[in-house]
Write a structure and sequence with these properties.
Layout (H helix, E strand, L loop, with lengths): L1 H20 L7 H26 L12 H28 L5
Helix pairs in contact: 1-3, 2-3
């Protein structure tokens, strides 16, 4: 369970660092700041919204102690997908702007 938690933290940290570091150099800081604010809000809301989908899983092979782990995995996967997608979108939208 501890290795699983380390994997989740590592996944979320790497995607957060990628989002923070990979940005176009010549874009307006106001536009990027607004885009970042909306992206972080969307990532948090999407991660929280994905938790209930893993929680009610009821199989005989899965103990009830693994339900929080499954919910955390869903949340971290959605977090990574949103941030990596937003990183690519931000780069392609704002790379042509020269200010």
């Amino acid at each position: 369970m501890i290795i699983f938690a380390i994997f989740i933290c590592l996944l979320m940290t790497i995607t957060a660092l990628a989002f923070a570091k990979l940005k176009p150099k010549h874009a307006s800081s106001d536009n990027i700041r607004a885009f970042n604010r909306w992206t972080w809000s969307l990532a948090v809301l999407a991660a929280l919204a994905s938790v209930p989908f893993a929680w009610p899983v009821n199989t005989y092979a899965m103990a009830s102690l693994w339900r929080p782990a499954g919910a955390a995995y869903n949340a971290s996967a959605v977090w990574a997908i949103v941030l990596l997608g937003a990183t690519a979108i931000r780069y392609f939208i704002f790379r042509e702007q020269r200010f």
